[in-house]
Specification:
By secondary structure, this protein is an alpha/beta fold. The protein contains 21 helices and 20 strands.
């Protein structure tokens, strides 16, 4: 639906008028997107927000001409500089892609060719569009690599994607999208899985690129698709909100973030993680159920044919303890060692030194056979529930297999599974359904039910909400907190999202290069950080100037 927002007197760079894309029979609704009206001006960042399935990415793919053959627009126009993209032949669209309209995809590792060096992939963009002089191509490739802030362009140019970090791969994708200086840049969730510091760097890069028009021209128009309202508050000029394929609200960032008109937008903003204003109930004094002393884990990194192997200390002398009913947060960037700690706690990998005391017994020294009877007491909720749930098994079987393997009869195990599915908010019909029939949030609830099936004393949640929509994330966090308090579980919550850690944790460890550099309550860590690394992490959290409860200050930072 159109919101009737006034348009600039200048012709929009990109204009979507009445776009509708039907879903083939059997879908949950008739249209993926219905009667969408949007404009994008030169020099503007338009953020498109909404939950998974709202039609954000479908709209972007329609602009790029990348829709699958079985889902084609049934109505509407997409005008780029006055020309209707939907009426163009594929050969014409191919000339526009990359040269006039660029796109940054969500997951660079799957978007980049693993068998090509990154410099060759950037060069290919230029060559496809007629720039074939080898010296000119090479010069432009090195310019682009340097422009997006990658170190040592001559070396990076010859690297394969798997050799780069997530943030570096995303910068390569940005270099490819900018190779021919397009007028429009579409960024589809480009920072969702990145650490806060890397995310801040990518956002700053996109903002600087968008603002700097070449030769006095207006800057690039950016359509930025995201579900992170912190990102929206950081960079948006205007915001469009989508729900189930319908555009329900469009306005300035100030208006949408601080005075949303529609209940759906209000619910999304209410679900944004924020610091607790009330004090968390004190955890009852008791002996720790889990105590880690001087834990060490070293990986041997392959040096290749001409380089020596090197030892990487993933965990270096880490110590902490957790009591029943307590939530310990472990935060840090990728490579800080936090996920390695989770794997060590459950003995999914061997440790190189230190003690892991579970109810006073050192489990680090136990053999797999000795530890097996104790595994039921320590369970994990994995980051990607779709990858960790067997697609060939029903949800009922997935949840009941653990109790069955630990001596329960089938009727007892199935009764326990039904009870847990109800406990995590899934209806009775879920028992006979398969994982692919559920949304991401529902699959994560299944993962929680499976972890609880054996009545564990310790639960390790490894980035368990990082990829979820903000509203689903809020539901899962509330569920975890409620279950933990009712069942008195010790929860080790591993995350790179400091906003989530501030909301759910009783105490927080900050990790950097395998070591704990700071520890304390959320208030101590976030209000009075002592270590320079902690201060850098907190400073990088997007949207700090915005108060999700509706306070002033949602203007984009100058």
């Amino acid at each position: 639906m159109s919101t009737g927002m006034g348009r600039s007197a200048a012709m929009p760079l990109l204009q979507i008028d009445g776009l509708s894309i039907p879903i083939p029979g059997g879908g949950d609704r008739p249209f993926a997107v219905r009667d969408i009206h949007l404009t994008l001006q030169a020099g503007e960042i338009l953020c498109v927000v909404g939950e998974s399935g709202s039609g954000k990415s479908m709209s972007a793919n329609a602009v790029m001409g990348l829709l699958p053959s079985y889902m084609q627009p049934s109505a509407g126009r997409i005008l780029f500089q006055g020309r209707d993209l939907l009426c163009m032949a594929e050969s014409e669209l191919r000339k526009l892609r990359g040269s006039a309209i660029g796109m940054i995809f969500q997951e660079p590792l799957s978007a980049l060719n693993p068998l090509m060096r990154v410099g060759d992939q950037i060069a290919e963009v230029l060559q496809v569009h007629g720039i074939t002089d080898p010296a000119q191509v090479e010069r432009r490739v090195l310019e682009l690599i340097a422009y997006v802030g990658l170190p040592d362009p001559a070396l990076i140019r010859h690297a394969y994607p798997f050799r780069l970090s997530g943030g570096q791969r995303q910068r390569v994708m940005i270099a490819m999208a900018l190779a021919l200086e397009p007028s429009v840049l579409i960024a589809d969730e480009p920072t969702t899985a990145l650490d806060v510091t890397t995310q801040a760097q990518i956002l700053a890069l996109i903002r600087s690129i968008q603002r700097s028009g070449a030769d006095g021209k207006a800057g690039m128009g950016v359509m930025f698709i995201t579900h992170d309202f912190g990102v929206v508050a950081e960079i948006a000029d205007r915001v469009a909100v989508m729900e189930k394929g319908v555009l329900i609200e469009v306005g300035s960032a100030q208006q949408v973030l601080n005075a949303p008109r529609y209940p759906y937008t209000q619910r999304l903003i209410a679900a944004v993680p924020r610091r607790r204003t009330d004090a968390r109930p004190a955890v009852a004094a008791s002996a720790p159920v889990l105590e880690v002393r001087n834990l060490c884990k070293t990986y041997d990194a392959d040096g290749g044919w001409f380089r020596k192997k090197r030892a990487v200390k993933a965990v270096d002398g880490v110590s902490f303890s957790v009591r029943r009913g307590e939530t310990l947060g472990i935060v840090g960037e990728s490579g800080s060692g936090k996920s390695t700690i989770g794997k060590c706690l459950l003995k999914l990998i061997d440790v190189d030194g230190g003690e892991i005391l579970f109810n006073g017994r050192d489990i680090a020294a136990l053999t797999p056979r000795q530890f097996r009877p104790m595994r039921k007491d320590m369970q994990m909720i994995f980051q990607d529930p779709f990858a960790s749930l067997n697609p060939r098994h029903t949800v009922g079987r997935i949840v009941s297999d653990g109790p069955l393997a630990n001596g329960k009869t089938r009727p007892e195990a199935q009764a326990r599974a039904s009870e847990l599915l109800a406990l995590v908010g899934l209806d009775a019909s879920s028992f006979e359904r398969y994982p692919n029939e559920f949304s991401g949030g529902q699959r994560q609830r299944v993962g929680i039910a499976r972890a609880l099936a054996l009545d564990p004393q310790v639960l390790v949640a490894d980035e368990s909400v990082s990829a979820l929509d903000v509203s689903v994330q809020a539901q899962v966090l509330a569920l975890l907190h409620d279950l933990q308090q009712r069942l008195r579980i010790a929860l080790v919550f591993i995350t790179h999202d400091l906003r989530v850690a501030a909301q759910i944790c009783d105490s927080v460890l900050v990790m950097h290069q395998g070591q704990v550099v700071e520890r304390g309550s959320p208030g101590e860590i976030f209000d009075r950080p002592q270590h320079p690394y902690t201060r850098r992490l907190i400073a990088a959290v997007p949207g700090q100037h915005w108060n999700p409860t509706g306070g002033a200050g949602a203007e984009r930072a100058a």
